[in-house]
Amino acid sequence: MNDLVIMKSQKALTTSLKVAATFSKEHKNVLQSIRNLTAENSAVKKMFAESTYVNDRGQEQPMYYMNRDGFTLLAMGFTGRDAMKFKLEYIEAFNRMDELIRNENNLPQTPEEQLQLTMVVTNRLVKRVGKVEARVDHIEKTSELSEIQRYQLLQARKKRVIEAVGGVDSNYYKDTKARKVFSAFGKDFKKEFQIPRYDSLEKQYFKKAMEFTRNWYPDFVLQREIQNSNAQTSLKI
Length: 237
Description:
This protein is α+β, with helices and mostly antiparallel strands. It is built from 10 helices and 4 strands, in the order E-E-H-H-E-E-H-H-H-H-H-H-H-H. The protein has 2 domains: 137 residues, no CATH class; 85 residues, no CATH class. 59% of the residues lie in helices and 9% in strands. Strands 1-2-4-3 form a 4-stranded antiparallel sheet. A hairpin with a 5-residue loop joins strand 3 and strand 4.
């Protein structure tokens, strides 16, 4: 992620090559997207400057420089798991470079100074991105269960209650008393995780909730009731 934004002719710019590499896209596809944008509106042409670079085989190939507006317009359509993170990194890099350019007294004059300045900006950006990722991770962990997780938890609860009453062929289950055990499980579950309802459980407690469900037993009184019910035999005439 180094050198996302460079300084050229005292302007904060990036290139189609850097965009392609950062967003894991084919460079030829990025070039085509830029050409499509510039063809649609003449005002967009001011945001991009066509240039060339030399590839690994020593061949001269086309590329584009673009300013902040050009990058924003180009990246607007980028989607995917990491797209938002990379967009934020670029925005931050543009902001930093613009700030340095506005401060003419601190403007680096030599390539060495530019490199040193870029490294400083990049290090600051990495730290900020790390904080953003930590916040995103926290939000993910504290969000409620997904639909799949809720289904898995409900199925585990059903299985455990049926096991606790002796199976679907047991007297207790056939006498439709199992709902009493479901109710007991629900009270214990909500008490254990201190929640008002099942669907308010946070994702970070999903594994613990599944473990609790698999190891849950009714209290002693309810167990005796189940045992007594299942011990009874039907009178056959």
